[in-house]
Please model this.
Amino acid sequence: MHISRICGISFASILLATAAFAQVPAQEGTNLNLSPPPQPSLGFYGLPGVMDMPTGEAMPDGQGAMTISSFGGITRTSLSYQFTPRIAASFRYVSIQDWNDNGFDDYRDRNFDIRFLVRRESLYWPSITVGLQDFAGTGINAGEFVAATKTFQRPLSLPGTVKATVGLGWGRLGTSGSIGSLFGANRPVFDPNSRGGEPGFDQWFRGPTAPFAGIEWQVNNRFALKAEYSSDAYTPETSRGVFERKSSVNLGAEYRYSEALRLGAYWMYGSQIGVTAQLQFNPNRGVNGLQVTAPRAVVVRPTRAVNPEAWQTDWAASASAPVQLRDLIAPELAKQGLQLVELGVTATTAELRFTNRRYSSNAIAVGRAARVLARILPPSVETFRIVPWTDNLALSAVTIRRSDLEALEFQPDAANALLAVTGIGDVDPDLPGGVQAEGLFPRYNWSIAPYLTPSYFDPDQPLRFDFGVALRGTYRPAPGWTLSGTIRHRLAGNVADSTRLSNSVLPRVRTDGLLYAQGSDTYLQRLYAQYQWKPSASTYARVSAGYLERMFGGVSGELLWKPAHRRLALGVEANYVKQRDFNGAFGFQDYSVATGHVSAYYQMDNGYLAQVDVGRYLAGDVGATFTVGREFNNGWRVEGFFTLTNVSAEEFGEGSFDKGIRITVPINWFLGKPTKQTISETIRPIQRDGGARLSVPGRLYNQVRGGHRGSLSDDWARVWE
Amino acid sequence: MIRQAALAALCAIGLAACSGGDQGARGALGLVNELRDTLRANREARRSGAPAQPQVTRAILDQLTIGALEVRVEARDLTAVLIPAALRTDSGPGDVAVWATVDDAQVILRSGVLYATRGLGRDLASSDVTPAVRAVKTRAAATGAREMQIRNDNFRADTLRFRCAIDVVGDTTIVIVGRSFAVRHLRERCENDTGFFENDYYVDSARDVIQSRQWAGPGLGFLTMRVLKK
Model:
């Protein structure tokens, strides 16, 4: 249900602290308009909209939004993301009070939306968007639409901007003022007790259609007024007495509190007061711009003509030279947050293997390592091979000529100029003749830190938390070896208070979460040993054994093929695990399973990632997981995934198949200081037993990828920083 | 209000934690504390007025044995005195001078024309300022293209391209810390589709820029610089 790599600092509280101003205010002597594209206001469904009706606009590329809206006892909490300039997706939690039907007091449900911007706004054309709302759930909010929005600056000499929207709606958006059925009249009716989860191909754009319209007047920088004609009759709600719909016209006013936060108050359907809070953020604009202490300028060697003695190579014959150089280089690297692992030198080349402990961008680390080498190595050393190294895995060899480093530092577009003459390729597992750093192993670290584990979407209480203290210790006796353990003690929380025990017909590999929460206040989260190494220049391997996660323990092995210069990676993972006792001690239950996957990973342009995992899941079901994601260079990552296996929708239960979203946020986006840490959170509409994967620590792909050509060249602009 | 509530929540979480080890691990506590400190610093930076300016007198300058460049980041109301960290002659126009503060923020100039900043955040990563360097070196008008790479928050650099014209405004006298200098005032106007910016250079008879106001990109705005000691 969750992964909290650091501790569960909730995204909401962090984002509320956000006020991104990447640009200085207007100054005398310039009128440059470099501000980011305008962000549209959001509707009650958390995507661009008037109130209940959508608009034809899209958010700026990469934009994320969190929205809460409420009126007449209907509350919608939405998480939206502009995945590409044209495609936006939204995940929503809906709560309807006083439903009093179908066995529910209050009705709660999850929705997914997807939208496609067909046309961008131009001089004469409006922006046009086609959208599917609640396209794969039970269908409480199911509706499709086409909407067009045109912007008018200072219309009729009024101040500000007016946006006018017209559209056609189907499903929920075609229930009031219908003008007939365009694409067939048959549309299945909404069934509150259906399983949901499957795309409603049979209902999209079917049934009655109705026109809607809206207008938004952004009076000035702060205030906006909105009005709309709604085509939603709210039949399921009004028929159950949730609220009374007296009018099709909605009115509202919105206030822009900051760049990020917008608040609104509304008069809805002639009878209800509504409110919204809209929070928008963009990974491209940090809270604090990353500020890294400036490096020292590259030291330029005297030319051979001026000082031929400096260029002599006799030093390389001395057996002690590599050790002396290592002892000069290591402390200089340490000042930059880099740790020397191994150094190999000849009269003309040097290979440095180092661990980057500070920068989330390996390009900065490579640039700083190169400057240190240029300052210390004798002039005859012309070729630098700089190798990022992490826990016994040499990731890639970045080959830079020292004379290029000297010549290009102050050239126009210096970063691209250097990239053009830099080689990034595979590196052998070992460095023959290299001198290793002293005292690198054994290493240990420990922490006592708070943890927070949220549990989402219990129909009785949508958000539950456990809070406690985690003691974690890690010991690394030798390169590649890790012994690590985490013990947690729960101090407070209400996850265990739920009364909803599993009703699963499959082996209960995930749905017994409640029994685990009730099992013990003090429990062993993980305790395992791991060894990882490189069998060859482009392959990586890992074996792990122990209590790998809260619910399973056993053995796990993984082999990954990922050449440093390729976009494609292939991996295979095999595990044999046994289900752990609920009490969180060392015991096991009877259930055991052999589970494993063959995986393909592909890195596309502009940070898009795709992954397919085919194999056997924890409940013994066989199938595949499909993941698409978008990663920003600064570490922001948004992913969506779904899993299809040979478990039928009936056996799977509510939701029909496993799916969810995962968000990763880099800490330095907030701090503006270099740190490698991130917060990651996975949200599933519902956790069932089908399509469940083992959560093994230390999977290889994400350890390896940041040191390869794709990531290094994406960040290369930082190499001189 | 909301920010304070978030801050309070973070502090509450951060109350009970610690970490250790031999690899500089910070753990959750360090991170939460750092996040809290950053938010606090952001808030205080918005509230507080200008920090006290360093008092520079001619007597102090006369005793200096190294060069000194005063740089003011107008938008942040930050002023610092920088000293030379490196001098280079490369294949590009003019001479490169790296000026640095004690805490390693840098301003890099090509014959007095801004090439890059480092350590300020949202820095100017690199530039092609050939026309401006030519105008300074000849104390005469020049035209040409300018290119600036500006670091964004996504670990990349955005390239801005401009058409620039440098014109002679006239000969004038400026005063720097109690001493007058006869200078030629050059103004560079750079334009593209998004608008324009204007840089001012005051060049002495030795063809050195001794005072200037130059644009460093949307994240930093204008830098005002004067040479306190050559």
